[in-house]
Amino acid sequence: MMPEHANLLKEMWRQKEWKEKPMLDEQLINEINLKLQFALKDDLAIEVEYFQNHDYHKVKGKLLGVDTLLNYVGLEEKEIPLNSVTGAWID
């Protein structure tokens, strides 16, 4: 097998394991928004789950702000697009 074929096969298998971004229902979106507001108001640490690059990621930290105009959630170490957020938990 040629190296190009091996690379193509590796890429094909990697893409086969990709996850799809979930469609969030309105109730879950409202729950996430409420937790973000609560964490911001009371200066609490929060864990945010988001979907990026075909996989789920989690980050914990202090919530610095939520910008609905620019569509992002600002944490101490990361800015996350608001439409990528799939879950939120207050620590």
Give your account of this protein's structure.
With 91 residues, this protein is α+β, with helices and mostly antiparallel strands. It has a single domain (3-90), classed as SH3 type barrels, CATH 2.30.30. It contains two helices and five strands. It has a five-stranded antiparallel β-sheet with strand order 4-3-2-1-5, covered by helices on one side. Strand 2 (55-67) and strand 3 form a beta hairpin. This is YolD-like family protein.
Number of strands: 5
User: Helical region count?
Assistant: 2
The CATH top-level class label: Mainly Beta
User: What's the overall geometry?
Assistant: elongated
The number of distinct structural domains comes to 1
What would you call the structural class? Answer: alpha+beta
Unreliable stretches, pLDDT < 50, 5 or more residues?
none
Tell me the CATH architecture.
Roll
Task: Give the overall pLDDT as a whole number.
Answer: 89
Instruction: Give the helix proportion (percent range).
Output: 25-40%
- Main beta-sheet strand count, sense and barrel state: 5 strands, antiparallel
What portion of the residues fall into strands of 2 or more residues? Answer: 35-45%
Q: What do we call the CATH topology?
A: SH3 type barrels
The gyration radius over C-alpha positions equals 17 Å
**From N to C, what is the helix and strand string?**
HHEEEEE
Cα separation of the termini: 51 Å
Pfam family, one: YolD
InterPro entries: YolD
Protein name: YolD-like family protein
